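Predict the holo structure. Ligand: magnesium ion.
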Amino acid sequence: MKTKLHLLFGGKSAEHKVSMQTAKAVMNAVDQSIYEVHPIYIDQEGSWNKGPVLEGKVDDVHALAFQGEKNTVSPLAISERAVKGKELDSAQVNEVVFPLLHGPNGEDGTVQGLLEILGLPYVGNGVLASSAGMDKIAMKAIFEQAGLTQVKYVGFIRKDWEEQAERVMSKIETDIGYPCFVKPANLGSSVGISKCKNQEQLKEAVKEALRYDRKIIVEEGVNAREIEIGVIGNDELECSVVGEIVPKTEFYDYQSKYEDEDTGLIIPCELPNEIYEQIKDIAKRAYKSLDCSGLARMDFFLTKDNEILINEVNTMPGFTPYSMFPLLWKHSGLEYPALINKLVELAIEKHQEKL
Ligand code: ATP
Ligand code: MG
Ligand code: MG
Ligand code: MG
């Protein structure tokens, strides 16, 4: 019997388009002899729609569009079996959800919580890792606790800015200085992120970031190599080879991620063996500190004097065949369709451990 693979994609977050791209790629790649694909499109208003077709080319983030009649369903209606409250037979799990969602309302534990309640196995991280990984301030507090080295940062909420911007700015300028990076605490794909070199830019950047989140993080800007590594596993972890990003722009912004063709991804990248081993070790420690499962991409900065700073975790990293995470695994010997199979196996393993 084929395994039902419920693909959740789209979503309410600012990373909607990126998710569409991922979904199209996964639909094209899944082994139809093993899986029966059930697409579920979440539109920008947050409605869930069963069985839509995605038209367009995977590599064109703007052209991909949902086509056909919308068959809006309750998020609870993903699986007939779950609706009827029937338990999955632990020996024969034949239904798995793959939340191909980035950003809030998908990568942040909310959808994962729903799937837990429904008793459905799902690919990737659970509630805690997803939510702690999405919130850059919570994530950094956990990394700090785990003894991992990272850039200096300051966090605040909209109300702090509205009521005492001068105090917040003075803290940023004293603790961090310029250049600094202003980010919405909960987002990805560089949406809402700005690099600032002075107070005027800082004010603008905070205003921009506040469009996306009520919580803001400001980080010390480092001049460093950008290194990324993939980790997969539940209790037993495997690391991919290490990759490097060489953006042609001031930093690795949304446009250089999805629109520019000349952003260099170097896989594997040149690193002294000792640094390579240290990065793998830190990546695993970071993964465990957040209680990650399934997969994650860990982003690092490597300074000129070879100091390794962890930047962030992505609990549902970009997942088209051209994205860093699948490319890292391809260069580690795991092709895209095999990677999908592996992640589904890990989802089933985790589900069975819970029962
Ligand atoms: P994604 O989830 O797509 O990886 P994100 O929105 O979570 O992205 P970050 O990875 O934190 O954002 O930052 C995006 C980019 O901005 C980085 O890849 C890097 O180019 C630049 N950047 C972010 N923070 C810093 C920093 N503290 N110093 C220097 N560059 C930074
Ligand atoms: Mg991120
Ligand atoms: Mg991300
Ligand atoms: Mg990143």
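Residues 299, 312 surround magnesium ion (ligand 4) (CB under 6 Å). The first strand starts at residue 3 and ends at 10.
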